[in-house]
Amino acid sequence: PQYVIMDGNTLEPLKIVSTRGMTVDTQEYHPEPRVAAIVASHEHPEFIVNVKETGKILLVNFKDINNLKVTTIDAARFLHDGGWDSTKRYFLTAANKSDKIAVVDSKEGKLEALVDVAKIPHPGRGANLVDPKYGPVWVTSCLGDDTIAAIGTDPVKNKKHAWKVVRSMKGQGGGSLFVKTHPKSKNLWVDTPLNPDVKVSQSVAVFDVNNLDKGYKVINVAEMAGLGEGPKRVVQPEYNKNGDEVWFSVWSGKDQESAIVIIDDKTRKVKHVIKDKRLITPTGKFN
């Protein structure tokens, strides 16, 4: 178990660093702790490294790799993925089996908060929006239940709401992997590809960010794809750069037809369906 610092131009490995170490809770030695996520800091020449099984977040300063400086933050097990708040200062990441979101202040290099959320949070990169009542928030859904949590992220103008779950919404069900919105959009999209109910796994919930109390509407994305037999799990909403399209993977088995469905964000209607024999088990999409 390790992370590797490479030359950015040639991808030549320059330094390999082990992640073996003690767990944050029971202080037991773990021989195989995996790296779950790596993100680049916007504040310093650092990588933020999540070590899953130990529950530690490493701030790896690569300015001088021969005299490597690493700040170790005790968070919680088992760390997974995460994303930035709207200011790109705070990194919010899921410790999924601990049912917590760890908040790292990348400017000061310290743990800002551990926020209790619902069962097995799985934010992907999460979603930033301005809540009409609570100000800037970061949103995560959960694998373990139907909860969608909004955490306050403004410790300056909305200090009393910062690093707390200020709004807890109900989605279609558990099994969610990704939430997504866009600065130009009024929609918050929530997938549920791992839900055991086919009607839920083949559709998505969409909220109006200006009226979150209203609840969600269900969009049957798999039906839009017009595919044959298969699970047709709808996964990972991803916006285009302009924020007027949302792309969904309709994920079936390797021997079955899959697709990518492009939805007009304003009308919530299908705009285009991409089908190709090379499109095998599509999941994540990035621009």
Portion in beta strands: 35-45%
* Count of discrete alpha- or pi-helical segments spanning 4 or more residues: 2
The value of Rg in angstroms is 20 Å
Number of folding domains?
2
Task: Assign a percent range to the helix content.
Answer: under 10%
The outline comes out as: globular
* Uncertain residue segments: none
Superfamily (CATH H level) name of the largest domain: YVTN repeat-like/Quinoprotein amine dehydrogenase
- Give the total of beta strands: 24
Topology:
Layout lengths: L1 E5 L6 E6 L2 E2 L6 E2 L4 E6 L5 E6 L4 E6 L7 E6 L4 E6 L5 E6 L4 E6 L4 E7 L10 E5 L3 E6 L6 E6 L12 E6 L8 E2 L6 E5 L6 H4 L2 E5 L7 E4 L1 H5 L7 E7 L5 E7 L7 E6 L5 E5 L13
Antiparallel strand pairs: 1-2, 3-4, 5-6, 6-7, 7-8, 9-10, 10-11, 11-12, 13-14, 14-15, 15-16, 17-18, 18-19, 19-20, 21-22, 22-23, 23-24
Task: Summarize this structure as a short list of keywords or feature phrases.
287 residues; mainly beta; Methylamine Dehydrogenase, Chain H; 2 domains; four-stranded antiparallel sheet; 2 helices; 45% strand; globular
Describe this structure in words.
The structure is a single chain. The model has no long low-confidence stretch (mean pLDDT 97). The protein has helices at residues 198-201, 221-225; strands at residues 2-6, 13-18, 21-22, 29-30, 35-40, 46-51, 56-61, 69-74, 79-84, 90-95, 100-105, 110-116, 127-131, 135-140, 147-152, 165-170, 179-180, 187-191, 204-208, 216-219, 233-239, 245-251, 259-264, 270-274. The strands form 7 sheets. Strands 5-6-7-8 form a 4-stranded antiparallel β-sheet, with no helix packed on it. Strands 9-10-11-12 form a 4-stranded antiparallel β-sheet, with no helix packed on it. The protein has 2 domains: 1-123, Methylamine Dehydrogenase, Chain H; 175-287, YVTN repeat-like/Quinoprotein amine dehydrogenase (Methylamine Dehydrogenase, Chain H). It is mainly beta and 287 residues long.
